Amino acid sequence: MPGISFYIKTDYDSAKNMAEATLASHGFTLEYIDPYNCTAERGSKTATMLAGAFAGKKNQHLVLSLNYSAWDQGGQVFNICTANTGMAAGVIGVSRLQDAFTDITNTLRNDFTQNGVYTGEAPY
Going edge to edge, which strands form the sheet with 76-82? Predict the structure, then answer.
């Protein structure tokens, strides 16, 4: 699954709070597996399975995988990647997933930059 690693010069709590706020603004609910790993989910799995692309952009089921780790140069590495393919909603669903992921990562990049903590990124 495609993903991005963001390198940010801040502490764990600040990184986590910024990422959570961004994802919440995009309609995602987070569920932590442990303090450093979680999934972000939005939309309805049932509606997506039953209606496919007709479930709609905001109701299509999307899942992201997130994790945080210490960065050896100080700060945090925040990894985000898609955790589903979008295929339950067909070709349109795959495209919607890619568009949503791009939108979310652009917003994260902007938020990290505006907070003065963004130092770079790499494919994940």
Answer: 29-34, 37-42, 62-70, 76-82, 3-8, 118-123
> 15 CB contacts (<8 Å, ≥6 apart)?
8, 68, 75, 76, 78, 117
Q: How far apart are CA 31 and CA 1, in angstroms?
A: 19
pTM: 0.83
Give tens-digit pLDDT for 78-118.
999 987 655 555 566 667 778 888 988 999 999 999 999 99
| Side chain identity, residue 1 | M
Distance CA 124, CA 104 (A): 15
Among the listed residues 52, 60, 19, the one whose alpha carbon sits nearest the alpha carbon of residue 37 = 19
Per DSSP, 112 falls in state H
Write the pLDDT tens digit of every residue in 30-79: 999 999 999 998 875 554 555 444 545 565 678 899 999 998 888 999 99
Specify which residues 25 forms β-bridges with: none
